[in-house]
Amino acid sequence: MKNFRKEIVFQTKNRVEFINITGEVQRAIDESGIKEGLCLVNSMHITSSVFINDDESGLHNDFRIWLESLAPHEPISKYRHNLTGEDNADAHLKRQIMGREVVVAVTNGKLDFGPWEQIFYGEFDGCRRKRVLIKIIGE
Amino acid sequence: MKNFRKEIVFQTKNRVEFINITGEVQRAIDESGIKEGLCLVNSMHITSSVFINDDESGLHNDFRIWLESLAPHEPISKYRHNLTGEDNADAHLKRQIMGREVVVAVTNGKLDFGPWEQIFYGEFDGCRRKRVLIKIIGE
Amino acid sequence: MKNFRKEIVFQTKNRVEFINITGEVQRAIDESGIKEGLCLVNSMHITSSVFINDDESGLHNDFRIWLESLAPHEPISKYRHNLTGEDNADAHLKRQIMGREVVVAVTNGKLDFGPWEQIFYGEFDGCRRKRVLIKIIGE
């Protein structure tokens, strides 16, 4: 069994941002030399997500509005977590809806994907250094 | 390390539908000959889900109503994604709540499940051909 | 390839409760002797979750209130599932938002985590015996 580990670093300019990382994950699979296996991609932070959906800017706008309606950023004082001095309680909630991680199949050295699947880093408390972990096992 | 890959194809009659695929996943494990490992089951599409919950029709009705309240299909014009000519923006949102994939343990050649766990394909934009991927690694 | 399996048992005193199980998962990794691999941690029940977020009591209170607003326990009669004699339909919904499972990387024999990541068992229909499964594969 082979295994491979890599980190990707982000520092977004906006509090909320979606970044397509499909190419970087495929490059990690290439570097690993693994042809058949499973690839875990997870946020190493608790206010951001890794998820799979469509690379369509209108949809990303819909996600932003929808998540804001389900877990609004303001009023800050609405959340007890923000009594710690943080203002990011909403980001912890949004991340639960979008998920922490994806596990994807590696087949014949490629991401084994349907026609529209793309992997995104979803930031909900940006403007600071964040990391995503890629861990691949297989052979 | 062994690995095994299989696709299941669906074409639902309704826009929203939940289909129990536990038997098909266990059959894939049987075919694979893998006794100990991990089994990934994921939708290959971005408007449907694979999830684990109860096989109870009342609950499935509750899911349908609840998801519709959180991410309504109409008005279509509410979503910017639908400006692309699609009418399925809500399906992309519903799928985030229900999830893209499950990873399940394989122990002694069987799905290692609690008493009520059943695997479902959750369709939110049906009446077209869709696929689910099963990828198993182990030995 | 090595594999390792372990169950953790819970019986909470409250209907809704969040329990930090990070130490127990690390102990399972230690027992397994696996240095590089993937570790699945999942609820074996369909009214509870395993998820990764912050170990901060204010945030857990926010989770409780937020989940109650998205999927209220009462009125019991609101849910068709509860016609079966259960009163836990809301717990089945809450668990979909928080997720069934996490898959975490094992690197050099340790949980490969960012600075604040902690694993929680999230109970939404407590006061009865429940189990969490840990399955680790790797070498």
Automatic annotation (TrEMBL), chains A, B, C:
SUPFAM superfamilies: YjbQ-like. InterPro entries: UPF0047_YjbQ-like (IPR001602), YjbQ-like_sf (IPR035917). It comes from the Bacteria. Pfam families: YjbQ. This is Secondary thiamine-phosphate synthase enzyme.
